[in-house]
Write a structure and sequence with these properties.
The complex is a heterodimer. Chain A contains 11 helices and 11 strands. Chain A is of the alpha+beta class. Chain A folds into 2 domains: 195 residues, Cytochrome Bc1 Complex, Chain D, domain 2 (Orthogonal Bundle), CATH 1.10.760.10; 86 residues, Orthogonal Bundle (Cytochrome Bc1 Complex, Chain D, domain 2). In chain A, a hairpin with a 5-residue loop joins β5 and β6. In chain A, α3 packs across α7 and α8 packs across α11. Chain A starts with 9 loop residues before the first helix and ends with a strand. Chain B has one domain: Cytochrome c-like domain (Cytochrome Bc1 Complex, Chain D, domain 2, Orthogonal Bundle), CATH 1.10.760.10. Chain B is globular and about 45 Å long. The relative contact order of chain B is 0.19. The chains are: A alpha+beta, B mainly alpha. Chains A and B meet through α1, β7 and α10 of A and loops of B.
Chain lengths: 290, 159
């Protein structure tokens, strides 16, 4: 059905009729499973789309969890089975560890991570007092460099993912709620334009796969809506944690395109726009995918 | 239109011999997005075409298309039309055009141009994610011969 929209000529319409006749199935998100973590925390995996989506994703938005296989879905239901918790624990330890010339730990200034970082993940990226659009990684490095006298962590470094996983966990269950208006508006517009730009030699936009074709299979991959409410997440294929921008790099590279750098202005704008497409979905950090 | 195409093939055949290859930018497009003239002047191999169609780094047609005539290929895509019967729906010239640059047949198609070198937005060198040193370094996804091989396979899909 989704394909129908791109079929313009009469011959193509005939081809579309053929698909319907031969019964190509649209493999929709799974409907017979619920994400209940540790037997107690219920996380909704679908929500009503925000008004700013203008109907782009129809009448439902879905977590990527709904497009993964049974085993992968099960791993995210129990924190003992979720490999990300190894990294969360390392992040919590770093939270309490003094570093840098000031000899301070995150906890020295912020206190308990459960209190001070609660809800933060759901609101990022956001515009700072100086008018810049910052991701969680920017905030962490700013404290390290300007307040602790410590070295910045690499955007995709293990330490950074440990910390963003530990911080993100504090918002688990809270609905994604990023600001898209006011000072965020121009960044959001740029991210949106990027989302619909057909990059690379294969001339594919994010929307070609994650809007026009979610629910379909591209070879063995069951295409999701490309939501980021579970990041950083454990990717079974990489046997390790993956950051939001790392995932973006991979998707642009797969269009035979020249990627943008993790942490770049472009990817932070794209992150804001993609986050806003998931507004209303609960934060799942740290998720498991394959 | 038909006569023009015939002259094209004749010219290739006599002037430059069977090995002449039409470069992506020299293709003689018909208005409907078809290409009458062979890209190589030599008939392709359907067997080789099947390999190109099922190899990830080459045509990777099965990523999007279901192809009933290749039942042994696992995990076929569900994005694009079943290819069985394609030769009954399209002429050889139309199929060549769809392969070279499907957007000339289906405006805004999701199907990538297989023998196209631009213009692109931020093209990279294959799947490295890196920019080419110069725009001239961009190679088409398939060679002219591979396009003719795939075409030879598609022409076997008469029902």
């Amino acid at each position: 059905m989704l394909l129908h929209r791109s079929l313009k000529t009469t011959t193509a319409a005939a081809a579309a009729a053929l698909i319907l006749a031969t019964g190509t199935v649209l493999a929709d998100p799974v409907t017979d499973d619920e994400l209940v973590v540790n037997g107690e925390l219920e996380l909704a995996t679908e929500a009503e789309p925000a008004a700013h989506l203008d109907g782009a994703l129809g009448d439902r938005i879905y977590s990527g969890w709904r497009f993964r296989d049974t085993e992968t879905r099960a791993m995210q239901k129990d924190d003992f089975d979720n490999p990300m918790f190894l990294f969360v624990d390392a992040g919590l330890e770093a939270w309490d560890t003094a570093e840098g010339t000031e000899g301070k730990s995150c906890a020295d200034c912020h206190g308990a991570i459960e209190d001070s970082m609660k809800g933060l993940r759901a609101s990022l990226p956001k515009v700072t007092d100086k008018g810049e659009l910052w991701s969680l990684e920017n905030f962490v490095n700013d404290c390290r460099e300007t307040r602790m006298g410590a070295e910045a962590w690499g955007w995709n470094s293990q330490q950074m993912k440990n910390m963003t996983a530990a911080i993100g966990l504090q918002s688990r269950g809270m609905p994604v709620d990023v600001a898209v208006d006011g000072p965020a508006a121009p960044f959001w517009e740029k991210g949106k334009e990027m989302y619909y730009t057909r990059f690379g030699q294969l001339e594919m936009s994010c929307a070609n796969c994650h809007e026009d074709n979610y629910g379909n299979y591209i070879r063995s991959d069951h295409l999701s809506q490309g939501q980021i409410n579970g990041f950083p997440l454990y990717r079974l294929k990489d046997q390790g944690p993956v950051s939001i921008h790392q995932r973006f790099v991979g998707c642009v590279r797969d269009t035979r395109g020249e990627t943008f750098q993790a942490g770049s202005q472009e990817f932070r704008e794209l992150e804001l726009y993609v986050a806003s497409r998931g507004a209303g979905l609960p934060v799942e950090t740290p998720a498991v995918r394959h | 239109m038909f006569r023009m195409a015939a002259i094209g093939i004749l010219a290739i055949g006599t002037a430059t011999g069977a090995l002449a290859e039409v470069a992506p930018d020299d293709i003689l497009w018909q208005e409907d997005g078809s290409i009458a003239q062979s890209l190589t002047g030599t008939p392709g191999s359907a067997e080789e075409g099947e390999r190109v169609m099922t190899t990830n780094a080459l045509g990777n047609c099965v990523a999007c298309h279901t192809i009933a005539t290749m039942p042994d290929v696992p995990f076929q895509g569900t994005i694009a039309p079943e290819l069985a019967g394609a030769a009954g729906r399209w002429t050889e010239a139309q199929l060549r055009g769809i392969l070279v640059d499907a957007k000339r047949t289906f405006p805004d198609s999701f199907m990538p141009g297989m023998y196209k070198v631009g213009p692109f937005i931020r093209p990279g060198v294959a799947y490295t994610g890196a920019a080419p040193a110069s725009p001239d370094d961009i190679e088409p996804v398939l060679t002219a011969a591979q396009v003719e091989d795939v075409l030879a396979y598609l022409m076997t899909l008469t029902e």
